[in-house]
Structure formats: structure tokens, C-alpha cells
Amino acid sequence: MILGIDLGTSMVKAALFDPDGECLAVAARRSSPTSYGQGRMEQDFEEIVNAVGEVMAEACSGRPVPRAIGITGQSDGLWLLDRDGRGCGRAVSWLDDRGNPYLQDWIDRGVFEAVFRRNGNAIFPGSHAPLMAAMSAAEPDRLALAHTASYLKDGILQRLTGARVTDTSDASLPFLDVVARDYDPEILRMLGLEHCRHLLAPVMPGPGQAFPLNAEGAALTGLPTGIPVHAGPFDLVACPIGAGVERPGEGLIIIGTTLACEVLVDRVDTSGPAVGMTLCMPQNDRWIRSMPATVGTATLDWILSLVGATHKDVDALLAESSPGSRGVTALPFFSTTGERAPFVDVRARGQLAGLSTATTRADLVRSVCESVAYAARECIEAAGLTGTLSVCGGGSNSITWSRMVADALQRPLSVARKPEVGARGAAMVAMDVVGIDYDRVSWTRPEGVIEPRRERAALHEAGFAHYREIVESARHLWHSPNRDLCHVPREKLPCPAT
């Protein structure tokens, strides 16, 4: 048995696989970020540690002890840990926007682009650099208490094995030289974060190594000590591995909390627009060119809550409206951190247009789903797709939405083998590192193929062109001086009379 752990933004999952890649058991616990208002999103690291122990014990209950454990999960955010791997207060989620002003300053001064020209990674508000800058200014004492500015999967590895390390995928953004695969001191200098260098965990070369489950890890999970545990790569890299993306030019769309549109490449290109990520694969000559838009399932969750519906209503609502959403159009940029792909703008905001008294809640939901499909097309084209394309993620469970994406792209979508594509990829890398032989083709066999409906090509071509037009118009309005004059931040509103 091989155990894969996926530490998602909203769920912690453990999936147990047999030698042929069949998933025998999945255990899950909810562990969502908590909103504290004003765009602040935080998570309790100790809560996640306990959830990991519970799902590992449940997935393995009554079955043979796994030969290896692979961990993947959400990246970015700021997971400050002490010397023993315990949280220094609540972790700052990658969804948090307190890094916005620091990123905007780097953009204005040209630092943002200069960093991209060194490593092919566009910094965004929820990544290490802006959050470190914000913490240095607002909570320097808390930062001083920390021994490691960790990533979530690496913090879990430390609690299970005692190892303080990271892998090249998580470290890629923002501080890594992604060709030499080590920290770039010049990037730290440009960002004014040299004083944080001691907080960065050592980077493991190549696919890294596995570490034995220690006594604390055994007590947490109920598994025996000594099982090799491997952490990495993080989910944006683990998913294409689990989906069978193996040749340069092939791609994957992850319809998750993030809409990640990714292409496997064999060289680092920093000459284009300063946008997206260049993430190290376990192989030294491969990278994932990722356009991780903030417009994924969190956008769908928002519109569903607005119209009083749930995920189980999605397919029915999409069927109630018609292609083109009866004239309703949407921009799906509802995150308080703005957008990070295929452009970077901390002021990006969503909109709904074309509304009338005849508009239904089904039209609203469909317009948002169509806008996400158009965002996926723009992102996957920007990432440089030339080969086959796969799809995975929670949003792909809606066959209607997945077919909408295929229609918008006018490309067939291979549905990645379910369940738990990220955990599958983590398990595969763990087997590679430990030296367990397995059939990669069997492990990544697709569930099927969603063919685009050619009769809808013209409609979606026009819809995509209109989407691009309204994005460009909105980008100008986001930066209008009048926007600032008419917007009063909530914290500056006058107090009500007593």
C-alpha cells in the first residue's frame, strides 16, 4: 500500500492506493481558512496537524501498513513555526490580502518585474515575500519568534519526521533560482528581505528524499515508526504528475479553489509578460509553467451563496439557462487579493453585467461558470499549451461545467484518473524516491475524454472575444482616480452616533 496526503485549502485528505494505483480508501476532514474581516484569512496549523493524524489513521485502518507516504498540498501563505515545528500563532493563508500594498509598491518601483526576469515567477499577495514584508512591519516580534517560514506540507513533514526541509516546487516562488535550484540572494536583496533568509528551510535537490516516521508521528497517526515519508511537490506540480502529464507542451487545468492552468516545459523562459509561475518539477530539466488564476471554485461558491444554492444544484442551474447566459456576462475576479494570472493586478474586481428583471439565478450562475471557462482558455493559451490537455479538481465533478470548459477551449479534455489526483501524484513521487517499481501508465489512466461540441464553436469564440473586451475595459476602470475618491475603506467609515 502507498498513502498519499493532500493538504488542500479547505480539506485535508488521505488516499490509500494499491500497487496498481487503485484507490482503496479516502478519509477527509474539513480545515478551511477563517476570515477575520478586511481581507484577512488565517488557518490553525495545529488543527491541520490533528486532522492529518485522523485521516491517516482512518484510511489505513484494517489494512496493511503502507510502504511509503507522500505529502502534497496548498502552497504559499506564511506558516511560521518554532524550532520544534509548532505554529507561532495562526498561519496566514495564501488567500489573505495584507501583502497587497507591498506587492503594489514592488510593481510601481519595477522590483516585481525584475524578480520575474530572474526566475520566471510573478509574486502575488499571498506568497511568502509580501506576507513576510507585512509581518515585518506589523508583527516583528512574532516573526522574531519563528525558526522557519514554512510551507504547509513541509510543516507536516517536520511534525511527522523531525526533518526541516523544503522542495524545489514550493521554493520556486519567490526566492529560488529555478535553474540552479537554490535560493537567489539577489532576489532577497531586491525585495528588502535579507533579514528573513535564516527562516528559509534548506532546499532538497531533485526529487528530494524520504525521512522515517518518528515517535511523535507514530503517536499522531497510529502507524509504526520507520515508514518513509516524503513531502513534495506541492499540489500545482503533484496534480500534473498524477494526471499523467509527461511530455513538454502537454497541459492540465485544475478547477479547484485556484483555477490552475499549467503546461509542462523543458526550459525556463523569462522573456515574456511578467505573469504566472515557473515551478520546478522533480526532474532537473523540467518545469511547470503555471497560470494559477484566483477564479476557481471559490468564485462558484460565492455566486451560489448569493443565490441561495449549493454545489448539488450546479448542474440543474446550468441546464436552466442557455449558452451565453441570456445576455448576462461576468468577470470572475472576486478575490480580495485581485488577480495573478494571466495578469497581475491587486485591484482586479468582479462584475455582473447585462442584468434585467428577467434575469434568473440560473443565468447568474451560468454567467460566472462561463467566465471561468473563458479565463481558463486565456490562461492555458498564455501558458503555452501545444499538446494534449487534461482536467481535474473539484469543479470537474460537474460534467456540465467541464463540458462548458471544453466548449470554450474547443479542445478535448482528458479526465484525470479519480479520485485524489494530487494525492496520487504525491504517492507516485514518494515511490520514485523510495525505489518502488510501478506502472505509470496504469496509475495515470484517464477516466475518459470530454469532446467539445463543434456546433458551439462560433458562439464561444464570440463569447471569449467579448470576455477579453470587458476585461480590458475593467482594467482601466480599476485604476481610475475616481475609483479611489468614491471608495471609503470600511475601517475609515465614521462611527454611528451614540
From TrEMBL:
InterPro entries: ATPase_NBD, Carb_kinase_FGGY, FGGY_C, FGGY_Carb_Kinase, FGGY_N. It comes from the Bacteria. Residues 1-241 form the Carbohydrate kinase FGGY N-terminal domain. It is an enzyme of class 2 (transferase). One of its GO terms (biological process) is carbohydrate metabolic process. Its EC number is 2.7.1.27. Transmembrane segments: none annotated. It holds the Pfam family FGGY_N. One of its GO terms (molecular function) is erythritol kinase activity. SUPFAM superfamilies: Actin-like ATPase domain. Keywords: Kinase, Transferase. Residues 295-431 form the Carbohydrate kinase FGGY C-terminal domain. Belongs to the FGGY kinase family. This is Erythritol kinase. It comes from Paracoccus haematequi. The lineage of its organism: Bacteria, Pseudomonadati, Pseudomonadota, Alphaproteobacteria, Rhodobacterales.
